[in-house]
Specification:
The chain is mainly alpha-helical. It has a domain at about 170-340: Glycosyltransferase. The chain contains twelve helices and 13 strands. The strands form six sheets. It has a three-stranded antiparallel β-sheet. A two-stranded antiparallel ribbon has the order 1-2. Strand 7 and strand 8 (about 215-220) form a beta hairpin. The termini are close together.
């Protein structure tokens, strides 16, 4: 890819982020009355539900604090991050410091802290906000939450788990994957020895337990010994998670100048796309059974925004690091699909999230219980940074 094309891509992603997506969330999501953010937003940004989901609240704090730290110190971004951080620290935790899953508009708890990803994104958000603001309380809570995650990581749901222990023990890719990213996000506040040990564990878990060397795919769940039980969960491939996990590991490998690990992550990314691309209708399937059997997820063939956006990040990063032509070719393919199907051509800012297999919109919403101010802005930002680096190389 020549520098002119890379610069054009960089400009496209930059302008979409700062002229469309971020203004949408600035304009529509901030709850000026009770704090925090509305995430259930229709196509025009109207609020259709006022409940507040803790990991989406945290993700939005992170987004605005990150832009303040890494792009431009705009006071409005710090203000938006600050009022979200204040809402979270006032209302988000139970008495033991575990983060609830959902709150009502005023901040009263609705759903118990069964989901450790609320804690992960709270730690990530408050770390980024503390870095932006110098807020010592946010920094302390981020560290305390991180320590709590490490204590819970071998039994993340604890008393809220529905699984009968011992019959079919499984480990999930989700937590070590998120920790691989969270540790780097918190690098500025962790001691060097603690940081490197945490990164070692994340890389080891993801690349030796969840990656299948023969099939060159990341499994969503594995037995404690890394084997694949012949059941729904044991055969499940979540292409979006696998690809996202690989760019997290690639980020660590790039930091460590580990070219062999970079090459391995790119191999898995490309193979996952070959495996999961819908050759009939285009786009990346949401879930697949590795043996081609019917998945238990009825939404298996839907096309979701975050899956395609994480693929764009992984491919842009892979090209920026290695110059892989396969990454460039796949980037163009996924880029064309994503910008044609998820972007709202009639304006309004944020992208759509949910398509059926044929690529037709299932919902006109711009945000909801699972979609907030995170995957779109993060991907646009990271793709801009990668293509800008290529253009300037």
């Amino acid at each position: 890819m020549d520098q002119k094309k890379a610069q054009a891509l960089a400009q496209q992603y930059h302008d979409e982020l700062f002229e469309q997506v971020i203004p949408f969330w600035e304009r529509c999501s901030v709850d000026e009355t009770h704090g925090g953010y509305f995430t259930c937003l229709d196509r025009q940004g109207g609020v259709f539900d006022t409940d507040k989901f803790v990991w989406l609240q945290a993700r939005q704090v992170w987004t605005f604090a990150m832009l303040y730290n890494r792009y431009e110190q705009r006071p409005v971004w710090l203000e938006i991050a600050a009022q979200g951080a204040a809402f979270l620290t006032r209302h988000g935790m139970d008495l033991e410091g575990n983060w609830y899953f959902a709150l009502n508009r005023e901040g009263q708890p609705l759903v118990q802290p069964y989901n450790i990803f609320s804690d992960c994104f709270a730690a990530m958000a408050l770390s980024q906000y503390a870095q932006a603001s110098g807020d010592d309380e946010a920094r302390e809570i981020a560290l305390r939450t991180y320590d709590n995650i490490l204590r819970r990581q071998d039994d993340p749901k604890g008393k809220y788990s529905k699984i009968v222990p011992g019959t079919r023990p499984l480990k999930s890719l989700g937590l070590p994957m998120i920790l691989a990213n969270l540790v780097l996000e918190m690098e500025w506040m962790l001691e060097a020895g603690v940081l490197e040990a945490a990164l070692d564990r994340c890389v080891q878990e993801v690349t030796t337990e969840f990656l299948d060397a023969d099939q060159r795919l990341a499994f969503e769940s594995v037995a404690p010994d890394g084997s694949h039980p012949d059941c729904f969960d044991g055969r499940l491939i979540n292409p979006g998670h696998g690809i996202e996990a690989m760019w997290f590991i690639m980020d660590i490998a790039r930091r460590r100048e580990d070219a062999e690990l970079v090459a391995r992550t790119i191999e898995i990314i490309l193979n996952t796309l070959e495996f999961a691309w819908d050759n009939e209708h285009g786009g990346i399937f949401y879930f697949l059974d590795v043996q081609g059997k019917p998945p238990q997820q009825l939404e298996w063939d839907q096309k979701l925004w975050w899956v395609h956006l994480e693929a764009l990040v992984a491919l842009a990063m892979g090209y920026a690091v290695t110059g892989s032509q396969a990454c460039a070719q796949w980037f163009e393919k996924v880029h064309d699909y994503a910008w044609t199907h998820f972007r709202d051509e009639d304006g309004g800012g944020e992208w759509f999230g949910y398509l059926n297999r044929r690529g037709e919109r299932l919902l006109d919403l711009k945000g909801g219980k699972w979609k907030g101010c995170f995957h779109v802005p993060r991907a646009l930002y990271l793709c801009w940074r990668q293509w800008q680096a290529v253009a300037q190389s």
